[in-house]
Prior knowledge:
The chain is an alpha/beta fold.
Amino acid sequence: MADIIPFNSPYMTGKELFYIAEAKFNNKLAGDGGFTKRCHQWLETQTGTNKALLTHSCTAALEMAALLLELQPGDEVILPSFTFVSTANAFVLRGAVPVFVDIREDTLNLDESLVEEAITARTRAIVPVHYAGVACEMDTLMSIAARHGLKVVEDAAQGVMANYKGRALGSIGDFGAFSFHETKNVICGEGGALLVNSQASALRAEIIREKGTDRSRFFRGEVDKYTWQEVGSSFLPGEITAAFLWAQLQEAQSITNERLATWEQYHASLQSLEKYGAIRRPIIPADCQHNAHMYYVLLAPELNRQAVLDSLKQQGVQAVFHYVPLHDSPAGRRHGRTHGALDVTLNQSSRLIRLPLWVGISAEQQAQVMYALERATR
Ligand SMILES: *Cc1c(COP(=O)(O)O)cnc(C)c1O
């Protein structure tokens, strides 16, 4: 049997090792050297954020955001249950309670029409997750937040190079978190960034990221010694990671374009399977320019997902399901609460499968994936 078509295959630009060698040659291996600065500038220009700070993961960026919010035990944070664990963990670590709200049928993003009724006297923040790089309905969420004095932290882990009404995901709320994990579009193994969108929080964000000290200001010559200013941790990556990422950021546009072409190919070719009733394809609202982070399909309710995945595997295709809803997990039940029944979350998450999508997948491989899906759902 031919090799299995993998779900993901990390793309390398070819410049990564060259830049890593340069970092070593410069004798600068700890964080916040030249490559980190270049990445910061690139991110700030690309997204329009006030300040971008590299972190060692999106998880770390979310934890920084939770620290910046100065949450008190018992404070509440509204987020979808259909997300990665880090979206909730970051706030639970500060003693906050995740309040899980249902998602929309079309985008699988936080249902903005349910958010306002989930707000209580303890609510401090809303955390929209831009699933598959498709934006949440940010205008509505931002105006709800403004009306109730809440902060907005965008989990834009999957949203690098994606837009909402022409604005970069991650740059719209108070804070945005990116991921450069090897399963995302632009990668450095493990990595992330915090976008600090207001001038007011920029200095505190730097301090929290540098173990709670004003070391960054010291290196800029703004203070004559650096001292412990507040509770923080080590959230920054080393220069080797930043050097790798720099190679990737330089090609971020072409990576996105290639992924979009693959995505469009799936989308056009799978229309017939949707008409036949076997699947539902992704729905992209008009205001959203996505980044082809993912191509998923929702299987018809009568299909057995595990049987479909097994059949795909037998046909040489590695497809995977995604999130187990957090409100339905042991830690989610212990630390969070739900608002309403979350029927859409339970329904859509049980029917979803993700197809192989990576830079370099060939037209033949893609055809094989679609043919296998057709057979598996027949
Ligand atoms: C990948 C992902 C994360 C975590 O990113 P890391 O960089 O691995 O910490 C968080 N939230 C969402 C929605 C993700 O997809």
